[in-house]
Design a protein that fits this description.
About 45% of the residues lie in helices and about 15% in strands. The protein is built from 11 helices and 9 strands.
Length: about 290
């Protein structure tokens, strides 16, 4: 994938949230800002435009002058801190943005030859804060707008995108879902707890909390837990998966292959335990049942 820097805009007034510190609001146990930072973890440099705060990974901080000058002023402050030929631009309130969408944006920008690639929402509206831009055209248009209007403060984003050669991407509906109201926050919190989402959300949250960047086959681990619970005893499931993790961490580089190998061995052992239990069942029937034949 093409090398890129990322700019995350995290300095809005959040008027519809009563002035709450929106980037710090929690969805799935993680601040909205950290969720967005997780989606662009591959960036060579990540610039966050807004007030300084503790984040899940290191970032470069920037601030528009004066603060509260709007998205174009914030974007200008951010792009001044970047060096890559491509820059990913995101708002800090995208709870469902994932790495696949980021890769698609960067990939489309690289293959299309256009000056920008942005998402469109389910209603067909452009989302310039879920987009990838070629850095030089972006700087050029920001400079031209500043010259034309005397300042970038308060200018709408559409003035930028209407001057750029755009590639539009129709992504999955939730990729551009942003949290502008308390109803949006509540909807996001409910969504991640739905049956089809909760496990992946939890695993991602745990990995971020522990500082682990390890992609493992969660299906295989769940199968292992099931085999241990069924073939040995229910408490064996969490203890076995813990031991698999420990074994993987102490084996070489502790990568996905080590987890898969430890899981395979433990699962085979659990199945042997179950097989022995089934073979022993007739023998434990007792003398009365044995004589009955």
């Amino acid at each position: 994938m093409t090398a890129y820097d990322a700019i995350v805009l995290a300095g809005g007034a959040a008027k519809r949230l009563g002035g709450a510190d929106k980037p710090a609001l929690s969805v799935g146990g993680r601040p909205l800002l950290d969720r967005v930072l997780g989606a662009c973890r591959d960036a060579a440099r990540t610039v966050v435009v807004g007030g300084r705060r503790v984040t899940a990974r290191p970032v470069v901080w920037a601030r528009e002058d004066p603060p509260g000058g709007g998205p174009l002023a914030a974007l200008d402050a951010g792009v001044r801190q970047t060096a890559a030929e491509s820059v990913l631009v995101l708002s800090a309130d995208l709870p469902f943005l994932g790495e696949p969408t980021v890769r698609r944006l960067i990939g489309t920008l690289g293959s299309s030859g256009r000056e920008a690639a942005l998402l469109t929402d389910p209603d067909g509206r452009d989302q310039p804060l879920v987009a990838a831009y070629r850095t030089e055209p972006l700087r050029r248009e920001l400079a031209l707008l500043a010259t034309e209007y005397g300042s970038l403060t308060g200018l709408p984003l559409r003035l930028l995108t209407q001057e750029l050669d755009l590639a539009r991407i129709h992504a999955e509906p939730l990729a551009s879902f942003d949290c502008d109201t308390w109803e949006d926050i509540s909807a996001a919190r409910a969504r991640i707890r739905e049956h089809g989402n909760v496990l992946d959300e939890w695993i991602t949250a745990v990995k971020d909390e522990l500082g682990i960047e390890l992609d493992v086959d969660t299906g295989a681990l769940l199968d292992l837990a099931r085999d241990a619970a069924h073939g040995v005893a229910r408490p064996a499931a969490p203890l076995t998966t813990f031991l698999v993790g420990y074994a993987a961490a102490t084996a070489g580089d502790g990568g996905p292959e080590a987890v898969a190998e430890a899981s395979r061995k433990a699962a085979a052992l659990a199945r042997r335990w179950e097989a022995e239990a089934q073979q022993s069942a007739p023998e434990s029937a007792g003398p009365d049942q044995a004589d009955a034949g």
